Each structure stands twice: as C-alpha cells, then as structure tokens.
Amino acid sequence: MTASPTLSRMSYSVDSDVFSAVRQSFATGEPIVLVGKSTSGVCMSVPAANVTAHSMAQLVKYSSGLVRTSFPLHIAHQLYIPTMSGLDAGLSSCVPTTVTVDALDGTTTGISAHDRAITARQLAAAGAQPEDFSRPGHMVTKVVDPQGAGSPDLAMLRMLALSGYRPIAVLGELVSVSNPHEMMFADEAVDFALEHNWPIAAIY
After folding, report:
1. CATH, domain 16-87+94-202, list 3.10.310.10, 3.90.870.10, 3.40.50.1970, 3.30.70.1350
2. Which residues pair with 46 in a beta bridge?
3. For residue 93, what pLDDT is reported?
4. Does the keyword field hold Hydrolase (predicted)?
5. HEC states along the chain?
6. How many C-beta atoms lie closer than 10 Å to residue 193's C-beta?
7. 185 beta partners
8. What pLDDT sits at residue 202?
9. Which of 53, 72, 149, 153 has the fewest CB atoms within 10 Å, i.e. the most exposed one?
10. Which pLDDT tens digits describe the chain residue by residue (204 residues)?
11. Which residues of 54-89 are buried (b: 16+ CB within 10 A; e: fewer)?
C-alpha cells in the first residue's frame, strides 16, 4: 500500500493510543467514529480498501443512508470521476460532489451494501482504471479539499495515509439514536462508540 506524500506530511490531532486502536480497525475493516470540535457533525468511517458488506450495511443503518467515498483530487483525475460541474472546475471555496459510480465487475443493481462495498474497494484498488466503473451509479463520491480544516473526510484520509493506505475512505453522517429525526451530536457519540466497541477520534 502506498501513502500519499502530501497527506502524510499533514498534521493530525489524534492521541497515540486512539490512533493505535484506529489502525487495528483499519486492518479489519471495522468502522471508527469521528467527532469534530463543534457540537455536531459526527461521522463513522471505514477505509475503502477494506470495507466489507457488513461494515457498509452498518454505515447505511446508522447514518442518514447517504454514504460517500472520499478521495483527493488527483484520484478523481486518475479514475475520470468528474465533478458535477466538470472535471476541470478545480477546487473552490465549496468543493463540489463528484459523480456517482458503480463498479462494473461483481455488482448487480449497485445499491446494496454488498455492491457498494465492491465499488468502494475497487475505487481504492491500486490498479483501478476509469473503465472499471459506470457513471452515474449508486456510490456517492467526493473530492476532499486539502485545506478543509476540521473536515472528517480530510482527517480520515490523513490517518489512512499515515497508516500506509491509499487515502480513500467511506463515510456517513450519523443519525441520533435518542432522536432519529436529528443528526448525532458529539455528546452522544462517545456512548455510541462504546456500545459498538469502535474507536472514537476527535478532529481538530
């Protein structure tokens, strides 16, 4: 596995013991929980390279259902995954969502947890090619702004790069357990992570 040099040089703020637990979860494809310094914006995430049908189903179950695969701009260019406004639009103050994709090999409708896990793993494959995917599909993709301070996507990509993985992650915004009509807040995230025995990392 090859890390991104740019992402590897970036700093991150995760306690070393927490990071050790995070890396163990990366290896097994289990989710981690990411909490920002604001009171909301709790995510769960899995490395795209190791996501399984089970962990993808967990992401769908506990999140809003809008699960995304995030990566740096150069990977979007490599795989020809253009932004909604065109591949050459570049990064602006608001990084646009890129087009949805499905892996062509091994999937059926593309929407199931099984199929979305295959698509995410294919996106993270070192030998992935543009022709490996159909566009549009069912996996939401997102280019990550390298200057996006406090972004759960960027924090996850940094940790993946520092752990030797390609910086491609699957993320979902968590819905509150106590009030399913709202998104999860930081004060609920600790209990949620403990209940599932998932590492929790603070983003700064």
Report:
1. 3.90.870.10
2. 170
3. 43
4. yes
5. CCCCHHHHHCCCCCCHHHHHHHHHHHHHCCCEEEEECCCECCEEEEEHHHCCHHHHHHHHHHECCCCEEEECHHHHHHCCCCECCCHHHCCCCCCCEEEEEEECCCCCCCCCHHHHHHHHHHHHCCCCCHHHEEEEEEEEEEECCCCCCCCHHHHHHHHHHHCCCCCCEEEEEEECCCCCCCECEHHHHHHHHHHHCCCEEEEC
6. 21
7. 40
8. 86
9. 149
10. 333 333 333 334 456 678 889 999 999 999 999 998 665 579 999 999 999 999 999 999 999 889 999 999 999 999 999 987 655 444 444 556 799 999 999 999 999 999 999 999 999 999 999 999 999 999 999 999 877 666 899 999 999 999 999 999 999 999 999 999 999 988 899 999 999 999 999 876
11. ebbebbbebbeeebbbbbbbebbeebebbbeeeeee
The first and second tokens of residue 95, run together, are 């990084």
Spatial separation of the C-alpha atoms in residues 194 and 190, rounded to whole Å: 6
Q: What is the pLDDT of residue 19?
A: 84
Question: pLDDT at position 9, please?
Answer: 35
Q: Which residue has tokens 């795209």? A: 48
Predicted TM-score (pTM) of the model is 0.86
Q: Is the peptide bond before 146 cis (omega within 30 degrees of 0)?
A: no
Q: Domain segments of the chain: what residues?
A: 16-87+94-202
